[in-house]
Design brief:
The strands form three sheets. A four-stranded antiparallel sheet has the order 1-8-3-6, with no helix packed on it. The chain is mainly β. Residues 4-18 and 159-165 have low confidence and may be disordered. 18% of the residues are buried. A hairpin with a 5-residue loop joins strand 4 (90-94) and strand 5. It contains one helix and nine strands; from the N terminus they run H-E-E-E-E-E-E-E-E-E.
Length: 165
Amino acid sequence: MVSKSKVASAGAVAAVLLGTGFAVQPAARAEVPPVSAVVLSQGVTSAPFKIKANGDRKVLYRKAVVQPGASTGWHYHLGEEIAVINSGTFTRIEGSDCSVREYGPGESLVEPVGPDTVHMGVNNGTEPVELYVVDIIPKNATAPTVAAPDPGCGPAGRRAGHGGE
Protein backbone atom coordinates (compact mmCIF):
# COMPACT_ATOMS: atom_id res chain seq x y z
CA MET A 1 0.00 0.00 0.00
CA VAL A 2 1.26 3.48 -0.88
CA SER A 3 1.43 5.85 2.03
CA LYS A 4 -0.47 9.13 2.01
CA SER A 5 2.80 11.02 2.28
CA LYS A 6 4.15 9.47 -0.96
CA VAL A 7 0.93 10.32 -2.80
CA ALA A 8 1.04 13.86 -1.42
CA SER A 9 4.72 14.18 -2.40
CA ALA A 10 4.02 12.96 -5.94
CA GLY A 11 1.14 15.39 -6.22
CA ALA A 12 3.33 18.26 -5.02
CA VAL A 13 6.07 17.36 -7.54
CA ALA A 14 3.51 17.20 -10.34
CA ALA A 15 2.11 20.59 -9.35
CA VAL A 16 5.59 22.12 -9.31
CA LEU A 17 6.49 20.60 -12.70
CA LEU A 18 3.23 21.74 -14.28
CA GLY A 19 3.68 25.17 -12.86
CA THR A 20 7.22 25.51 -14.20
CA GLY A 21 6.50 24.79 -17.84
CA PHE A 22 6.78 21.02 -18.01
CA ALA A 23 3.14 20.75 -18.98
CA VAL A 24 2.39 19.48 -22.47
CA GLN A 25 2.58 22.47 -24.75
CA PRO A 26 0.70 22.65 -28.07
CA ALA A 27 2.94 21.90 -31.05
CA ALA A 28 4.35 24.95 -32.78
CA ARG A 29 2.50 25.69 -36.00
CA ALA A 30 4.48 25.48 -39.21
CA GLU A 31 4.63 28.70 -41.15
CA VAL A 32 2.33 28.58 -44.17
CA PRO A 33 3.61 30.63 -47.10
CA PRO A 34 1.12 33.15 -48.45
CA VAL A 35 1.45 31.65 -51.95
CA SER A 36 2.66 28.18 -52.83
CA ALA A 37 2.88 26.06 -55.96
CA VAL A 38 3.83 22.48 -56.69
CA VAL A 39 5.03 21.35 -60.12
CA LEU A 40 3.02 18.21 -60.88
CA SER A 41 4.82 17.38 -64.10
CA GLN A 42 6.89 19.11 -66.75
CA GLY A 43 7.88 18.38 -70.30
CA VAL A 44 9.56 19.80 -73.36
CA THR A 45 8.14 20.21 -76.86
CA SER A 46 9.54 21.66 -80.04
CA ALA A 47 6.10 21.78 -81.69
CA PRO A 48 5.10 25.29 -82.71
CA PHE A 49 1.63 26.27 -81.56
CA LYS A 50 -0.76 29.18 -81.12
CA ILE A 51 -3.81 29.36 -78.95
CA LYS A 52 -6.69 30.87 -80.90
CA ALA A 53 -9.77 32.04 -79.05
CA ASN A 54 -12.85 33.36 -80.76
CA GLY A 55 -15.30 33.89 -77.95
CA ASP A 56 -15.39 32.46 -74.46
CA ARG A 57 -13.33 29.33 -73.79
CA LYS A 58 -13.38 26.70 -71.10
CA VAL A 59 -10.03 25.57 -69.66
CA LEU A 60 -9.76 21.99 -68.43
CA TYR A 61 -6.82 20.69 -66.43
CA ARG A 62 -6.84 16.90 -66.31
CA LYS A 63 -4.80 13.94 -65.20
CA ALA A 64 -5.30 11.17 -67.76
CA VAL A 65 -4.25 7.56 -67.26
CA VAL A 66 -4.04 5.06 -70.12
CA GLN A 67 -3.77 1.48 -68.89
CA PRO A 68 -1.44 -1.06 -70.58
CA GLY A 69 -2.98 -2.27 -73.84
CA ALA A 70 -5.61 0.50 -73.88
CA SER A 71 -6.09 3.28 -76.42
CA THR A 72 -7.88 6.60 -76.64
CA GLY A 73 -9.66 5.47 -79.79
CA TRP A 74 -9.59 7.52 -82.96
CA HIS A 75 -10.60 11.11 -82.25
CA TYR A 76 -9.96 14.77 -82.91
CA HIS A 77 -9.85 17.82 -80.62
CA LEU A 78 -12.35 20.67 -80.42
CA GLY A 79 -9.74 23.04 -79.00
CA GLU A 80 -6.07 23.29 -78.22
CA GLU A 81 -4.51 20.61 -76.04
CA ILE A 82 -1.07 20.48 -74.46
CA ALA A 83 -0.08 17.26 -72.67
CA VAL A 84 2.94 16.28 -70.57
CA ILE A 85 3.88 12.63 -70.24
CA ASN A 86 4.57 12.01 -66.56
CA SER A 87 5.16 8.25 -66.68
CA GLY A 88 5.03 5.38 -69.16
CA THR A 89 5.41 5.45 -72.93
CA PHE A 90 2.59 6.97 -74.97
CA THR A 91 2.36 6.02 -78.66
CA ARG A 92 0.56 8.52 -80.90
CA ILE A 93 -0.69 7.45 -84.32
CA GLU A 94 -1.41 10.20 -86.87
CA GLY A 95 -4.45 9.35 -88.99
CA SER A 96 -3.45 11.30 -92.10
CA ASP A 97 -0.37 9.17 -92.84
CA CYS A 98 -0.43 6.46 -90.14
CA SER A 99 2.89 7.69 -88.75
CA VAL A 100 3.78 6.56 -85.25
CA ARG A 101 5.62 8.54 -82.59
CA GLU A 102 6.43 7.54 -79.03
CA TYR A 103 6.56 9.99 -76.13
CA GLY A 104 8.17 9.24 -72.77
CA PRO A 105 8.37 10.91 -69.37
CA GLY A 106 9.37 14.56 -69.59
CA GLU A 107 8.13 14.97 -73.17
CA SER A 108 5.17 17.10 -74.20
CA LEU A 109 2.86 17.02 -77.15
CA VAL A 110 0.62 19.65 -78.65
CA GLU A 111 -2.47 18.28 -80.35
CA PRO A 112 -3.85 19.91 -83.49
CA VAL A 113 -7.49 21.05 -83.67
CA GLY A 114 -10.30 19.95 -85.96
CA PRO A 115 -11.85 17.00 -87.80
CA ASP A 116 -9.01 16.84 -90.33
CA THR A 117 -6.54 15.96 -87.53
CA VAL A 118 -7.77 12.49 -86.49
CA HIS A 119 -5.32 10.53 -84.36
CA MET A 120 -5.14 7.93 -81.59
CA GLY A 121 -3.00 7.36 -78.50
CA VAL A 122 -2.02 3.86 -77.38
CA ASN A 123 -0.25 2.37 -74.40
CA ASN A 124 1.76 -0.56 -75.77
CA GLY A 125 3.79 -0.79 -72.54
CA THR A 126 3.44 -2.75 -69.33
CA GLU A 127 2.83 0.18 -66.98
CA PRO A 128 0.10 2.85 -67.01
CA VAL A 129 0.78 6.03 -68.96
CA GLU A 130 0.09 9.12 -66.86
CA LEU A 131 -0.40 12.46 -68.61
CA TYR A 132 -1.22 15.93 -67.32
CA VAL A 133 -3.34 17.71 -69.88
CA VAL A 134 -4.59 21.26 -70.45
CA ASP A 135 -7.48 21.66 -72.90
CA ILE A 136 -8.76 25.04 -74.09
CA ILE A 137 -12.14 24.32 -75.64
CA PRO A 138 -15.28 26.20 -76.69
CA LYS A 139 -17.36 27.24 -73.67
CA ASN A 140 -20.34 25.07 -74.64
CA ALA A 141 -18.33 21.93 -75.50
CA THR A 142 -19.22 18.95 -73.33
CA ALA A 143 -15.90 17.15 -73.91
CA PRO A 144 -12.49 18.07 -75.34
CA THR A 145 -12.59 15.39 -78.06
CA VAL A 146 -14.94 13.90 -80.66
CA ALA A 147 -14.76 10.21 -81.60
CA ALA A 148 -13.85 9.52 -85.23
CA PRO A 149 -13.75 6.43 -87.45
CA ASP A 150 -10.48 4.61 -88.11
CA PRO A 151 -8.92 6.47 -91.05
CA GLY A 152 -7.52 3.16 -92.32
CA CYS A 153 -4.49 2.86 -90.07
CA GLY A 154 -5.81 0.18 -87.76
CA PRO A 155 -4.72 -0.18 -84.13
CA ALA A 156 -1.04 -0.71 -85.03
CA GLY A 157 -0.90 2.50 -87.09
CA ARG A 158 -0.15 0.82 -90.40
CA ARG A 159 -2.12 1.29 -93.60
CA ALA A 160 -1.62 -0.74 -96.75
CA GLY A 161 1.30 0.83 -98.58
CA HIS A 162 2.46 2.73 -95.49
CA GLY A 163 5.05 1.31 -93.14
CA GLY A 164 3.81 3.41 -90.27
CA GLU A 165 7.21 5.02 -90.01
